[in-house]
């Protein structure tokens, strides 16, 4: 089984030395990485490091603001890196007008990025599931008013009071589940390394295997540091793989 790592999990190390971080991530057994920033490194250097350490880039978390400010630069970087998936990691809306504006923007960027061979997707937190200004939630709008692939963050789905396994099945049936974040934590939204929370990690894992959906680990607490937390998560995945 191949596992990816969202590099926000090891942001403490990545900010100091991205190359060495990639080397250590590969040594832990992760085979793909999802970037959350490049810390000023040119795409050619990052691509060389990925090749040297046997890693594949599965995607990036790139804010909408980055596309607004420098669409051409973002596209050029992704092309140079050989990265086919750009994931919007976060947006927030306080009114239905703002929901509509976000949806319009995402639909437009989806079209524009597709022209360059790049797929646009969206990654959820918990707030997207809450009603906005007495109306539909941002998640409802994403599902019904876009055709975007949705990178289900299964912990945040759980923290929102929803069933991550059911949403995985629903999105997969629509052809809109390219990858998931497998993640743990408490119902109150407090994140934990895999195996240390109350999220339905094993059910999520088994469902991902059944559906053939790639799994990207994310664990954000830097406890005691990002790399150790990434190791804890990998050890836990190995332990449940023997039961799956």
Q: What would you note in describing this structure?
A:
This protein has ten helices and twelve strands. It is an alpha/beta fold. Helix 2 packs parallel to helix 3, helix 2 packs parallel to helix 10 and helix 3 packs across helix 4. The longest helix has 19 residues. The model has no long low-confidence stretch (mean pLDDT 97).
Which fold name corresponds to the CATH topology?
TIM Barrel
Q: Write down the secondary-structure element order.
A: EHHEHEHEHEEEHEHHEEEHEH
How many H/I helical runs? 10
Order of neighbouring strands in the sheet with most strands: 1-2-3-4-5-8-9-12
Taken from the alpha-carbon principal axes, the silhouette is: globular
> Which bin fits the share of residues in helices?
40-55%
Radius of gyration, whole Å: 17 Å
CATH class: Alpha Beta
CATH architectural grouping: Alpha-Beta Barrel
- CATH homologous superfamily label: Divalent-metal-dependent TIM barrel enzymes
Low-confidence stretches: none
What structural class do you assign from the helix and strand content?
alpha/beta
Q: How many strands in all?
A: 12
Assess the beta-strand content as a share of residues.
15-25%
Mind summarizing the main beta sheet? 8 strands, parallel, barrel
């Amino acid at each position: 089984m191949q596992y990816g790592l969202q590099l926000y999990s090891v942001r403490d190390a990545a900010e100091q030395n991205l190359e060495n971080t990639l080397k250590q991530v590969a040594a832990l057994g992760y085979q793909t990485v999802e970037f959350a920033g490049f810390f000023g490194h040119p795409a050619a250097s990052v691509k060389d490091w990925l090749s040297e350490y046997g890693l594949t880039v599965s995607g990036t978390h790139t804010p909408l603001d980055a596309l607004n400010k420098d669409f051409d630069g973002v596209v050029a970087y992704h092309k140079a890196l050989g990265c086919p998936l750009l994931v919007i990691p976060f947006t927030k809306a306080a009114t239905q007008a703002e929901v509509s504006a976000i949806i319009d923007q995402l639909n437009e960027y989806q079209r524009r990025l597709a022209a360059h061979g790049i797929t646009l997707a969206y990654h959820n937190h918990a707030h997207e599931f809450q009603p906005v200004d007495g109306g539909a939630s941002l998640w409802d709008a994403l599902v019904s008013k876009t055709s975007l692939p949705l990178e289900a963050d299964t912990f945040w789905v759980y923290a929102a009071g929803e069933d991550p396994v059911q949403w995985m099945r629903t999105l997969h049936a629509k052809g809109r589940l390219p990858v998931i974040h497998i993640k743990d934590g408490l119902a109150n939204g407090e994140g934990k390394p895999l195996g240390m929370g109350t999220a339905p990690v094993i059910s999520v894992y088994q469902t991902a295997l059944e559906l053939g959906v790639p799994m990207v680990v994310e664990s954000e607490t830097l406890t005691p540091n990002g790399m150790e937390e990434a190791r804890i998560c990998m050890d836990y995945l190995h332990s449940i793989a023997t039961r799956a």
